[in-house]
Amino acid sequence: MATPRRGGPGSLVLLGFVFLLTKGADPSRADDTVAAGRPLSGGQSLVSKRAKFRLGFFRPGTRPPAPHRRFLLDPRGGTSQYLLNWNSSQQYWSSGNWTGHSFTAVPEMMASDASPVSQYSFGYVDGAEESYFVYDVKDEAVVTRFLVDVTGQIKFLTWAQAAGGWVQFWAEPKAQCDVYALCGAFAVCTENAVTPCACLRGFSERSSDEWRQGDRTSGCARNAHLHCSSDGSVHKKDDVDGFYTMPNVRLPQQSVTTAVITSIRECELACLANCSCTAYSYSDRTCSLWYGDLVNLQDTTSAAGTGRDGRTSISIRLAASEFSATTSGTWKKKKLLVTGLVVVAATVLLTLLVFDAGSLLSQYNDTKEADVERTH
């Protein structure tokens, strides 16, 4: 049974929570709110505002929720694990099976005398007609909540009155960049960065408003369209698309491997030959091609020692104008630099000439005066 309490300003949270799934029910049904004491039943999953799942009470969205991220019991049956899915199909996290005390992938649920989790009791029931997970708070003064926020992570939080905010006990998946499509298409995710998502070169935020609110799943859009016609040919030689290479990355999934290609140049040409190809990577005599939206690209430059190191590179397809603009700008800078150096050199040379001329004139005058004195 869940008891509602007031938490932070304008928020209503639960001291206890029950997640209930009726076996054999349709998992496509989704709500964005569950009332106090009412189980989450009938195969429902909570989907929050702008399709970000949140467990507990929250302000419902102003538009019908879309099933982008869901937390639900494993629909395959035979297991006691919960799954986080993207778009109702792409699983990117599993709780692991219930051990009798916790889920195997969430060791933070194991209580100890020094652990703040000792204030809670967790339980999982697998019955003939329904299965559910429940947790209760031993101290009624403690306010807690489960949620999946805009990061796509499940978080277990407790309200800290002294701090005037929520304290996070644990989050899953632990690596924020492991959340599927966290940064949307054509963006790169950098773990532990203040702002984990950034658009790739040649792309800009598709929805600046959503990005400012911390929701970056809309991804990025091209600044310039690729110059590729329906038959795969380019309009003219100057319009040939180019590639920008990013080193030290963790490659996205869903690539197509071409085994017959034996060089990086052949791999590049194979991508150029298809208008839908957006990136390629060549390593160990293997050519990998990506078609359509590029998602889940991770920058591993600063991941040394974390087990997420990567020296693989990927080449992103860009319109020719992206390179000509850069080349033009670079040439202008070089031209200004050369002009400046020439002016400086000319000024120094002129100064030296004036100085030398003055010295010669002074020597001539001195010599002339000496001759006059010898004459007298």
TrEMBL record:
<dbReference type="InterPro" id="IPR000858">
    <property type="entry name" value="S_locus_glycoprot_dom"/>
</dbReference>
<keyword id="KW-0812">Transmembrane</keyword>
<dbReference type="GO" id="GO:0048544">
    <property type="term" value="P:recognition of pollen"/>
</dbReference>
<protein>
    <recommendedName>
        <fullName>Apple domain-containing protein</fullName>
    </recommendedName>
</protein>
<keyword id="KW-1015">Disulfide bond</keyword>
<feature type="signal peptide">
    <location>
        <begin position="1"/>
        <end position="30"/>
    </location>
</feature>
<keyword id="KW-0472">Membrane</keyword>
<feature type="transmembrane region" description="Helical">
    <location>
        <begin position="336"/>
        <end position="355"/>
    </location>
</feature>
<keyword id="KW-1133">Transmembrane helix</keyword>
<keyword id="KW-0732">Signal</keyword>
<dbReference type="Pfam" id="PF08276">
    <property type="entry name" value="PAN_2"/>
</dbReference>
<dbReference type="InterPro" id="IPR003609">
    <property type="entry name" value="Pan_app"/>
</dbReference>
<dbReference type="Pfam" id="PF00954">
    <property type="entry name" value="S_locus_glycop"/>
</dbReference>
<feature type="domain" description="Apple">
    <location>
        <begin position="228"/>
        <end position="313"/>
    </location>
</feature>
